[in-house]
Automatic annotation (TrEMBL):
GO biological process terms held by the UniProt record: methionine biosynthetic process; transsulfuration
UniProt family annotation: Belongs to the trans-sulfuration enzymes family.
Organism: Cucurbita moschata
A cellular component annotation (GO) from this entry: chloroplast
UniProt xrefs under Gene3D superfamilies: Aspartate Aminotransferase, domain 1, Type I PLP-dependent aspartate aminotransferase-like (Major domain)
Single annotated GO MF: cystathionine gamma-synthase activity
Secretion signal, residue range per the UniProt entry: none
UniProt-listed Enzyme Commission number(s): 2.5.1.160
Keywords assigned by UniProt, alphabetized: Amino-acid biosynthesis, Methionine biosynthesis, Pyridoxal phosphate
Record-linked CDD domains: CGS_like
UniProt name for this protein: plant cystathionine gamma-synthase
Underlying gene: LOC111441806
Length: 574
């Protein structure tokens, strides 16, 4: 071994057969060292293992106590030399928790191939649960013999240290600060060690770290005052911002070409927060007939309590929009494009020009389009909103919503968000970040499969009609071609039959899940009449165009041929 090498990986091998009926009180352990690494990592490895419990007989622990949480001194010797010097005396015993041996993995017990220097120490059950003194004595003798064989001829620890090297442990910055000596009790050390007076940063990590904290501290009151008086920028409270969440917001802003993005706990949270922040009491909004039902419920039942009224128009009826703008003091035009579930498209450029002439803002919910297929802001909209639960997250495992636009408008929404809440958990933000890394691959596959599926269904005799912007039969097909680069992964269609026939078709499918939501890797299918409108009578459902035989099919990223075969066999079953 070279002089500058030191212990990096430890493998404990139990020499006593734990399955034997007579387990000794003192169990001999081999402490192996393998390939050398930097000293700082050794500090983290050796510390917890060498100072497990306080004990008057544990002379080892005292040698490691210093200003660094009782773990390492500033003048620490080479790890090898330190361990070797303790191995010379079998009377010095490391104590471990009662279940220490049982916690050793099978892999650890077998990993004995990279042995460099072997020193022998003994581990003793702290609760003395195995009263076999004779066996313990025999084990101790075995320790002495093994130690004598493992250590070089000289018994002088100093000489041994010199032969191994004098490289000191590299303690992480901040961990050796003399201020840590304020902690005299293990409880305080367990709370603050490695954190209170500085911690390592992970700027070089490939993936974005998840920062799980509810609040952020200031080193001194002057720093807090600088923050409050806007001389410095800082995080303060978890609801007001999080480093992980900000990465997700910046990623979405970059895709949308927005100055700012606010990401929140769900798509509905983003919608309601936007409406409450930008529409004044007594204001008026314009929306479309085809939209997400929960959005409609909020507009029709909750906004009127604040004196906010609404005009509802067909997505393509620009004359109705012009009338609404002239007859009302419209604050906002808000719609989806494409819409849910009929995938109607709004002429975003024309609508934006008309609304801006009357001083109204335009917000487009682009969830069905994704930021890849449609750039609503570049077409003239003031804001673009997404249920990030769908395509942006893309894995059916996270709830989130976002709204993007100018810094001025998003800041108004953010200020209300700070009051009302609905903050996105940083773990959820991480899932959004991870999902977005494959967004372009998923959407490309879903665009392709959905278009092929729409054409297949439209040509099938058991399908009455298909709703998909990529088909020439769609009322806004030409508009979709102008303002979209892809038509999305959702296809809606009507089965040639009643509700019973449609149920039989859906139940015959093997691949898609019967579930709400869309945009994930897995294909999902549902009957809106049952999934979203079952609480309404059939006649009420028909007012919104929801027929009993309507099906919404969210195409996943499965191979198209598998989906095709599944759809055809299900149609054959009806």
């Amino acid at each position: 071994m070279g002089d500058t090498q030191s212990i990096s990986n430890f493998t404990f091998l139990i020499l006593t057969d734990l399955r034997a009926a007579t387990v000794p009180d003192t169990l001999p352990l081999l402490l192996f060292s393998s390939s050398a690494m930097a000293g700082s990592s050794h500090a983290r490895l050796l510390g917890p293992a060498s100072d497990c419990r306080s004990c008057p007989d544990l002379a080892v622990a005292g040698r490691f106590r210093g200003h660094s949480y009782g773990r390492f001194t500033h003048e620490a010797k080479s790890v090898k030399a330190t361990v070797a010097s303790y191995a010379l005396s079998s009377s010095r015993i490391f104590k471990f928790p009662p279940n220490f041996v049982r916690q050793l993995s099978t892999k650890a017990r077998r990993n004995c191939s990279n042995i460099g220097v072997a020193q022998v120490v003994a581990a003793s059950w702290s609760n003395n649960s195995y009263p076999f003194p004779s066996a313990a004595a025999a084990a101790a003798n075995a320790v002495d013999a093994a130690a004598a064989a493992a250590v070089p001829a000289t018994s002088d620890a100093a000489a041994l240290e010199g032969s191994i090297g004098t490289e000191s442990l590299k303690v992480e910055e901040g961990l050796g600060d003399s201020r840590t000596s304020v902690f005299d009790c293990d409880g305080s050390v367990a709370i603050h060690a490695g954190e209170r007076f500085g911690r390592g940063r992970v700027d070089d990590a490939i993936t974005t770290p998840v920062v799980n904290t509810s609040a952020y501290f200031f080193k001194k009151t002057a720093d807090l005052l600088d923050f409050k008086e806007k001389r410095a920028v800082s995080f303060e409270y978890g609801r007001y911002g999080n480093p992980t969440t900000i990465v997700a917001e910046e990623k979405i802003s970059a895709l949308e070409g927005a100055e700012s993005t606010l990401i929140v706990a769900s798509g509905m949270c983003a919608s309601t927060m936007m409406l409450l922040a930008l529409v004044p009491a007594g204001g008026h909004i314009v929306t479309t007939t085809d939209c997400y039902r929960k959005t409609r419920i909020f507009i029709e039942t909750l906004l009127p309590k604040m004196g906010i009224t609404a005009t509802t128009i067909d997505p393509a009826d620009m004359n109705a929009l012009e009338v609404a703008l002239k007859e009302n003091n419209v604050s906002l035009f808000f719609t989806e494009s494409p819409t849910n579930p009929f995938l109607r498209c709004v002429d975003i450029k024309l609508v934006s020009e008309m609304c801006h002439r009357h001083g109204a803002l335009v917000c487009i919910d682009g969830t069905f389009a994704t930021p890849l297929n449609q750039k609503a802001l570049s077409l003239g909209a003031d804001l673009v909103l997404h249920s990030a639960t769908k395509y942006i997250g893309g894995h059916n495992d996270v709830l989130a919503g976002c709204v993007s636009g100018s810094l001025k408008l998003v800041s108004e929404i953010r200020n209300l968000h700070h009051v009302i809440g609905g903050a996105l958990n940083p773990n959820a933000a991480y899932l959004i970040i991870r999902g977005m890394k494959t967004l372009h691959l998923r959407v490309q596959q879903q665009n392709s499969s959905a278009l092929r599926m729409a054409k297949l269904l439209e040509a099938h005799p058991k399908i009455k009609c298909v709703y998909y912007p990529g088909l020439p039969s769609h009322p806004e097909h030409n508009l979709a071609k102008r303002q979209m680069t892809g038509f999305g992964g959702v296809v809606s269609f009507e089965v040639d039959g009643d509700i019973t026939t449609t149920i039989k078709f859906i139940d015959s499918l093997k691949i898609p899940y019967i579930a709400p939501s869309f945009g994930g890797c897995e294909s999902i299918i549902d009957q809106p009449a049952i999934m979203s409108y079952w609480d309404l009578h059939q006649t009420e459902r028909l007012k919104y165009g929801i027929k009993d035989n309507l099906v919404r099919f969210s195409i996943g990223i499965e191979d198209f041929e598998d989906l095709k075969a599944d759809i055809l066999q299900a149609l054959d079953a009806i």
